[in-house]
Amino acid sequence: MIHTALDIETIRKDFPILNRQVNGKPLVYLDNAATSQTPQQVIDVIVDYYQNYNANIHRGVHSLSQEATDAYEAARIKIQNHYNIAKTHEVILTSGTTHSINLVANGFTSFIKEGDEILVSAMEHHSNIVPWQMLCERTGGVLKVIPMNQNGELVMEEYHKLLSEKTKLVFCNHVSNALGTINPIEEIIEASHKVGAAVLVDGAQAAPHIKADMQALDVDFYTISAHKVCGPTGVGMLYGKEEWLNKLPPYQGGGEMIAEVTFEKTTYADLPHKFEAGTPNICGGIAFGAALDYMNSIGFEAIAQYEEELLDYATKQLLAIEGLKIYGTAKNKTSVISFNIEGIHPYDIGTILDKLGIAVRTGHHCAQPIMDFYKIPGTVRASFSFYNTKEEVDVLVEGVKRAINMLL
Amino acid sequence: MTIEKIQEEIVDEFSMFDDWMQRYEYMIELGKSLPLIDEQYKTDDNIIKGCQSKVWVHAELDNDKLVFTADSDAIITKGIIAILIRVFSNQKPQDIIDANTDFIDEIGLKEHLSPTRANGLVSMVKQLKLYAIAYQTQLN
């Protein structure tokens, strides 16, 4: 029995997609860490935008443009409030986490000298490794790795040893996408600031589970993607402290990001527009705000409590299967279970589960270093959201058993 | 037997199955019986890119015919390769180049044809055909 204050049956009615069938079976969607599903409330906002006030923002004198601009800027304030950000212009709307990280990595090119050190955690997504490698190639900076242990937790003693005056930047995800580990970012941020290093936290995987407080964390940069929190794809946030955003050069040139342009010289617009060249994903930004409204109407505390119950239940049920091993057993983790069955390739399990209508992710989850660490080709990853049920966990467990029977 | 005849034979076999489970069970069986590639050919050079599971394919000429051996670390993928090898191995390179692959659709494996599909059936077919092109050039 799972106890929750949430009315899951009613919540599920908000998500039209959960009613569909896949391969003749009711969809059991357990790939929420890849992308979350979209509630009708957010779909309605998207439809309303295109039906009633689709226009380019920030430049029109006409009413539609004004309405669209107002809605877009209102969304920015919703994001600001959600993350307790001090100033509205510290919210940069991007195309998502990858864009946000690249914007910062690119901006740091002129700040990193040869021999400067950049620390990155061992459990990063490729999107939080490759941009920094590219930065190091451009600048002669040195990338160092904060190691992790077998449970999938960062070895904090090693982190503290790695920090020095040479450290200029530290990158870490708030929650690991492949393992679900919640990293001790408070400690990471505090220690890095002591040596004068800036910190970027990739919050993409934390977003649906944890309401992060930017001012309390005192983090320098924080990134998320809207599609992890019931919003649309192609839009996300870069939070940056004002002083950093003022220091960083613009990432892309174009319309919207300028104050004045002549062929001799261009002066850049103020924040946040300096980093928002071109026509943005207007509808996406507005829907992002609506998605946060939706999540907040359910409540992050209730969500976290329910997901933890689901995680505990699923972990117990799965571990009862002979030969099943879970990767990522950190004390602090979100509702993500990465696992393998001895003697079976994760791809085979995923293929059979799909035939049973169960959507999971298989593969290296864009985190090859983690797979190399465990010396495995990949894992099956089931990730649970607040709209998943105990019954769906049972369907997963039965599906895995059936796949094992077929495959072994 | 010609490529076309073998394909017809496979389509016939698969038409006896009522549902996906039987089809997959058969493929898994095929995968388990796939003659393994000689270890020396399981090199990085022989890995087909674009597959979530690892796939190794080796080709060599036996007189005027091309012989394929292969392996994979995933059993369903191995089953798919087993079917491809049955169709394309021991055939003349030019016949392999000219062959169409509509039978994959007919045996209900269409979903594996999508280029985004992680098992990379498309990559496998492409690789077999590339070998055929290379050896055809050699024969000429």
* Secondary-structure element string of chain B: HHEEHHHH
Second rung of CATH, namely the architecture of chain B:
Alpha-Beta Complex
User: Helical stretch count of chain B?
Assistant: 6
Distance between the termini of chain A: 32 Å
Number of DSSP strand runs of chain B: 2
Q: How many domains of chain A?
A: 2
Q: Please mark out the parts of chain B with pLDDT under 50 across 5 or more consecutive residues, or reply none.
A: none
- Corresponding CATH superfamily of the largest domain in chain A: Type I PLP-dependent aspartate aminotransferase-like (Major domain)
Q: What is the residue-averaged pLDDT of chain B?
A: 86
Unreliable residue runs of chain A = none
The dominant shape of chain B is: globular
Key terms:
heterodimer, A: alpha/beta, Aspartate Aminotransferase, domain 1, Aspartate Aminotransferase, domain 2, B: 140 residues, mainly alpha, Sufe protein. Chain: A, two-stranded antiparallel sheet, 50% helix, pyridoxal phosphate binding (chain A), transferase (chain A), pyridoxal phosphate (chain A), PyrdxlP-dep_Trfase_major (chain A), Cys_dSase_SufS (chain A)
Notes on the structure:
The complex is a heterodimer of chains A (408) and B (140). By secondary structure, chain A is of the alpha/beta class. Helices cover 39% and strands 17% of the residues of chain A. Chain A folds into two domains: 131 residues, Alpha-Beta Complex (Aspartate Aminotransferase, domain 1), CATH 3.90.1150; 253 residues, Type I PLP-dependent aspartate aminotransferase-like (Major domain) (Aspartate Aminotransferase, domain 2), CATH 3.40.640.10. Chain A has a seven-stranded mixed β-sheet with strand order 4-10-9-8-7-5-6, sandwiched between helices. Chain B has a single domain, classed as Sufe protein. Chain: A (Alpha-Beta Complex). In chain B, strand 1 and strand 2 form a beta hairpin. The relative contact order of chain B is 0.18. The model of chain B has no long low-confidence stretch (mean pLDDT 86). Chain B starts with a helix and ends with a helix. Chain B is globular. The interface between A and B is medium-sized, with 14 and 15 residues. Chain A: Belongs to the class-V pyridoxal-phosphate-dependent aminotransferase family. Csd subfamily. Chain A: Catalyzes the removal of elemental sulfur and selenium atoms from L-cysteine, L-cystine, L-selenocysteine, and L-selenocystine to produce L-alanine. Chain A: Its cofactor is pyridoxal 5'-phosphate.
